[in-house]
Amino acid sequence: MSDTKKRQGLAALAAAGNGEDFSVIDAIGGIRGVIESMLPGFVFVVMFVVTSDLKATIIVSAVLAVLLVLVRLVQRQTVLGALAGLISIAICLIWAWNTHEARNYYMYGFITNAVYIVVLAITLAIRVPGVGFLVEFIRSLPTEHLRAWLADWRGDKKLMRAYDIVTAMWIGVFALRLVVQVPLYLTNHVTWLGTTRLLMGLPFWALAIWVSYLLIADPMRHHPKFKSDDEGDDGDDGEDGNVVGNAIADGANAGVNAADSEKTVSAEK
Hints:
By secondary structure, the protein is an all-alpha fold. It contains 15 helices and no strands. The chain has helices spanning 2-5, 9-14, 24-27, 30-51, 54-74, 80-99, 107-125, 130-139, 146-154, 157-186, 190-199, 202-221, 224-232, 236-254, 258-262. α7 packs antiparallel against α10 and α10 packs antiparallel against α12 (202-221). The radius of gyration is 19 Å and the shape is globular.
């Protein structure tokens, strides 16, 4: 289905049990989503390198980010992810503006990655792996009987093990970013910091989504509830699920995808 192919991030993983083709490009927002995620950061780089004027660079980047959202509004397309990206960009730009340091454009990314590590680690400790929880939440909203809903997927050993591995892998991705990038920030190697942010941003996100799909697709297909859900859908519920799933995924992925990929600045202080 076209709706499923357009699912992004966690919503794309939620559809892994449907037996349909998985597209990494679609999962990270499509070509347009990639361009919109990276364009403000690219403009920031070019403007700062050419002008060495941090304030002018911030203003141009902010205007561009707003225009991208307005274009989606005019075209009547989904703007949740774009708005979340705009907010994250605004935080980064304001931080750099107030401190008068280009390197502080990256600080928000450090904080969000650290938060993700802590939250996901807690979910592993309490045996409710965070990635699995979000994927299952998108797949079948627990409107009632929360305990039964949790027991249903947590009781599947293969699926639970896959969710544990995927959640641990995501923790590793976030931790690796901090291990590599924080020392560059502290030593004020802004150019190298921007380069590593670029390489460890969207490409790492795409790789994490792809590996996650490979790990959870098979156990998800063999889980009885997924089979019964697919057979019992009357069309309306599935369509509503796609809409809700995409909306939740946009919000959930915004801090990972938009916020992180936007901060790919390789400008020198």
